[in-house]
Amino acid sequence: xxxxxxFPISLTRGRGVWVWDSNGKRxxxxxxxxxxxxxxxxxxxxxxxxxxxxxxxxxxxNLYRIPEQEELAAAITASSCLxxxxxxNSGAEANEAAIxxxxxxxxxVRGIATGDxxxxxxxxxxxxxxxxxxxAVTATGQPKYHQxxxxxxxxxxxxxxxxxxxxxxxxxxxxxxxxxVAAVLLEPIQGEGGVHPGxxxxxxxxxxxxxxxxxxxxxxxxxxGVGRSGQLWGYEQLGVEPDAITLAKGLGGGIPIGxxxxxxxxxHFRPGEHASTFGGNPFACRAGLTVLAELERRDLLSxxxxxxxxxxxxxxxxxxxxxxxxxxxxxxxxxxxxxxxxEAPSAPDIVKAAMGQGxxxxxxxxxxxxxxxxxxxxxxxxxxxxxxxxxxxxxxxx
Length: 398
Ligand SMILES: *Cc1c(COP(=O)(O)O)cnc(C)c1O
Prior knowledge:
Layout: E1 11-15, E2 18-21, E3 26-29, H1 32-35, H2 44-54, H3 67-78, E4 84-88, H4 91-108, E5 121-125, H5 134-139, H6 143-146, E6 156-159, H7 164-174, E7 181-186, E8 189-190, E9 196-197, H8 200-213, E10 216-220, E11 244-247, E12 258-262, H9 282-297, H10 300-321, E13 326-332, E14 335-340, H11 347-356, E15 359-360, E16 362-363, E17 368-371, H12 379-396
Parallel strand pairs: 3-15, 5-6, 5-7, 7-10, 10-11
Antiparallel strand pairs: 1-2, 2-3, 4-12, 8-9, 11-12, 13-14, 14-17, 16-17
The protein binds pyridoxal-5'-phosphate.
Subunit structure: Homodimer.
GO biological process, one term: L-arginine biosynthetic process
GO molecular function, one term: pyridoxal phosphate binding
């Protein structure tokens, strides 16, 4: 079905940070399947680990214990502030699990009754992105994604991201007649909504208020988690510990996997309350285990910190060369957004022109061009990417 306005190229092959289309044209890939291909394309270690797993076992049901799943859960919990993990297959699905957990927290911990318009509420940010299933898209604070699919799911309220006063006011309003709010769901950095990094003071205040009211604080780390920020987990950038995080994109390095990781204190699910047929199967978990092992073995976190700083520097230089077209650059690690002025072509137009120059980029809204390359990208690739972007900008600029 026509759910995507697709570019008229077919990508048929990839290696490292490069992909080739069916005509043999080569592109430098700064999209990585939208922050998915952590280790780049056709990584040798990932290929071998998955081939071996294919020769052993791909799928059994969660009716049985799955060693690869237990090992991946242990790797996530040992390296984070979280204690227990539920596995699924995508970001939206991870957020669905988080939303169900939040509802249960509201009922059982906060004692919020249902009925008389008193159901538990989940507070999310404007310009957020949490996925396209009905509850996840309702959580997404962007009306354009709701349009045509009403009625939306009940029980969500929105506030401007990074706005402490607005958050405090909304919380006070919701709680005026007693406990009403089950959870706050936030991206540590907004990706799709325009690459807006979270503000530390704002997040600290949200954490304080959630603690004071026993409200669940959930971070959607589907895009920023698993090393993209230069820290393993996005919350480490903020110095605030969430009660739960959701993961997906980068975790499987291209193999679909999603996860909800929670603190033991909010591990509210009991057998039979949530489930997934494919979630956490041996093949997907082998992919996750290999990605996490390679991040460590190749010291990719410090690499991402260096490459992120270099990319930011190169983009800042680009901005200073084209001050009438470009406004600035913002982001963490290898999630960076180049902000365009009104005088510049739109982000989708620049992305299209960059494709002509052999560079893959993705917009984050109409005025931001997003870089989310494989974490293994090297300095020479970043320089080439910014050169090609500059050529694209000039070919489309006034
Ligand atoms: C991509 C994304 C999602 C949705 O993930 P899917 O796997 O497409 O369902 C959710 N949250 C964030 C922050 C994302 O970037």
